[in-house]
Amino acid sequence: MITKTQHVPLKASPQPPLKRSSGGKKLFRKIEPYIWIAPSIILMAVFILIPICSVFQMSLNKVSKTGKIQGFNNFANFTKVLNSSAFGIVLKNTIVWTIAVVVISTVLGFMLALILNNQFRGRKIARAIVVFPWATTLVIQASAWNFIINKDYGTLNTLLLKLGLIQQSVNWTPTPGTYFAWEIACGIFVTIPFVTFCVLSGLQSIDTSYYEAATVDGATYFQKLFKITLPLVKSSLTVSTVLNIIYVFNSFPIIWTMTKGDPANHTDTLVTYLYKLAFYNNKQGEAAAVSVIGFIILLICASTYMIYTLRKGDDDL
Amino acid sequence: MSQPANSVKKPLSAKKVILRVLLYLVVLDVCIITLYPYFAMLCTALKGRAEIFTADGTILPATALWSNFIDIWSRATMGRYMLNSFLIAGGSTVIAMLCGIPAAYALARMRFRGQTAFLGFVIVSQMFAPVVLLIGIYKVMLSMHLTDSIWGLIFINAAFNQAFTVWLLRGTFMGISAEMEQAATIDGCTRVQSMLRVLLPVAAPGIVTTLIFIFINAWNEYTVALCLISTDTRKPLTVGINIFNGYNIIEWQYLFAASIFAIIPVVILFMCIEKNLVSGLASGGVKG
Questions:
Q1: ipTM for the complex shown
Q2: Do B27 and A215 count as a contact with CB atoms less than 8 A apart?
Q3: Pairing of strands A61-63, A69-72
Q4: Cα separation of B54 and B61, whole Å?
Q5: How confident is the model at residue B100 (pLDDT cuts 50, 70, 90)?
Q6: Residues A185-240: pLDDT tens digits?
């Protein structure tokens, strides 16, 4: 049988030998794709979908200290979270953190991509160096920055003293606000490479004849930038921005390593706040409520941004 | 006004020279700022404790204490952390690929009901970072007796990298013509055989990129490991090195010496795939 099926198709179509079991074959054909995707679905269902359901369930129920679900409690978790004095600060911090890191790193990353897209000696080395912060785990990056800005023995003070730019050690983090600003700076530092490389890939796919034609027509550099480059890398920018909104919003290690959200929630974002609620204060129901609130905010932001840019893109075409 | 595209041979105008110099200055600045934290880490890792904490600090170490790099192996179970990191990253990569390749293949080569729904779920799953689901994950792990276990971390990392794996591989597979596989099927290969022998070798660059990227992600993962693992000998590097980051005393020299061991493999791997990864990311986004 098997040898026959191997030889027949050389002359005829492979259908005839299959005809005999066509019913079973047809059924198999129908369910075959599901067998192929089954492992992936099972993996994601068990380790992502069930946790999602469990978080939603916990957010709506009274949860005991040991994690037992004790029945619907009329959104008490949500009202408790929303009424707590810390939540306002935490929410404001999260918004400031996300917007500042995403916007500034997108602008700087885009500019860096334009620079690296030029032909120059050492371009490969420069590109390799720019990757560094992306590849380094955030905990280590954050520890390094924490050390650099330390007011007593940090290397930033040492460096500036040695260069003669300052006369005495500066306290770089006099208030929680300035500490938070440093955390944002660290966030920007590690986010730039991702934007840069997304944009670079977009830039490299642009046909150079557009620029040549524009030059012939006497277009200036900025005209070319806004009329050719920007519209053509927009899809790359959209991808990187949407992913960055999600990553930055959910970013935990930088703030946890540098300040742990202290003092008194002044540098907390939603994720560090919910970590403390769940694992330090043992308020799992409220932590779950914070998770759900965070997810809703993220869903609204990311989908609005995506719909907005995609629709705008359609209008241009 | 008009210039031919290949005006390289013409003498450079003054304006162009200035632009060139500016370009190099900016690139140099960017490189210095980017490398500065690594420079600071390396210098600190080579200093003695007293030298770090003096008010009148030094930039370069007075005498390089290479012994710090040796001391960390006895002061903490560095070897164990490193092994754990390798096991977690390697295990996650294997599982993510074993689940992701068939799924990406089905998405790229077959049509079936629920295809869009599956893709949609894959994308939406990206929005849930492990940290947001930590309480839920912890509960699931408790019920499966996987808390404080390396296996637990392997599965979590594999699952949360699944979206990326499926997305990137689907793009890679769709970029490869199906003709060769069809020919192989006509010659009597089964689907599995034609995928293994025909498609995967051609898709190797994309697969290696995906593989390395998952490995790096799992190697760098911190939050879930911090939450799930309590036994010291099961900690990965990212969590384990914080043993030097105590509440009262921070042993910066050891912390950074250990950090350098954690960074080096990843940076090397990353530089290998940097080019492919980004084009893969972009094409996945555009095609989707």
A1: 0.82
A2: no
A3: antiparallel
A4: 12
A5: very high
A6: 999 999 998 888 888 888 877 888 888 888 888 888 888 888 888 888 887 788 78
A277 token code pair: 């609620």
Of A115, A243, A291, the CB nearest to B26: A115
The DSSP string of A253-316 is HHHHHHTTT-STTTT--HHHHHHHHHHTS--HHHHHHHHHHHHHHHHHHHHHHHHHHHHHHHHH
Residue written as token pair 């932001």: A301
Dihedrals φ, ψ of A70, to 5°?
Answer: -120, 30
- List chain B residues with CB under 8 Å of A30: 112
Q: Chain B residues with CB inside 8 Å of A112's CB?
A: 30
Scanning the structure block, which residue is given the tokens 């023995």? A153
> What kind of fold does domain B77-245+262-287 have according to CATH?
MetI-like fold (1.10.3720)
Select from A30, A43, A194, A293 the residue whose CB has the most chain B CBs within 10 Å, as the one to mutate to test that interface: A43
Domains identified in chain A and CATH numbers: 16-53 (no CATH), 79-316 (1.10.3720.10)
Is B110 close to A33, i.e. CB distance below 8 A? yes
Provide, as residue numbers in chain A, all residues whose Cβ is less than 8 Å from the Cβ of B131.
250, 252, 271, 274-275
* Residue in the block written with tokens 């007593």: A152
**What Rg do the C-alpha atoms of chain A give, in angstroms?**
27
Q: How far is residue A212 CA from its own chain's centroid? A: 36
Tens digits of residue pLDDT in B149-195: 899 999 999 999 998 889 888 888 888 888 888 888 888 888 888 88
Q: How far is CA B65 from the centre of its chain?
A: 31
Q: How far is B14 from chain A (nearest CA, A)?
A: 17
Crossing angle (nearest 10°) for helices A85-116 and A76-83: 80
Write a three-state SS string for B105-148.
HHHHHCCCCCHHHHHHHHHHHCCCCCCCCHHHHHHHHHHCCCCC
Residue A138 CB neighbours (<10 A): 23
Give the residue-averaged pLDDT of B131-160.
90
> Token digits for A229?
């480059």
* Distance from C-alpha of A111 to C-alpha of B104, rounded to nearest angstrom: 34
For chain A positions 164-223, those within 8 Å of chain B (CB to CB) are: 169, 197-198, 200-202, 205, 208, 212, 215-216, 218
Helix, strand, or coil (residue A59): helix
Is there a contact between A191 and A248 (Cβ–Cβ < 8 Å)? Answer: yes
CB contacts of B196 in chain A (<8 Å) are none
B148 Cα to chain A: minimum distance (Å) = 15
CB-nearest partner of B128 from A115, A218, A295: A295
Q: Which residues of A touch B266 (CB under 8 A)?
A: 135-137
pTM: 0.83
The size of the A-B interface in CB pairs under 8 A is 277
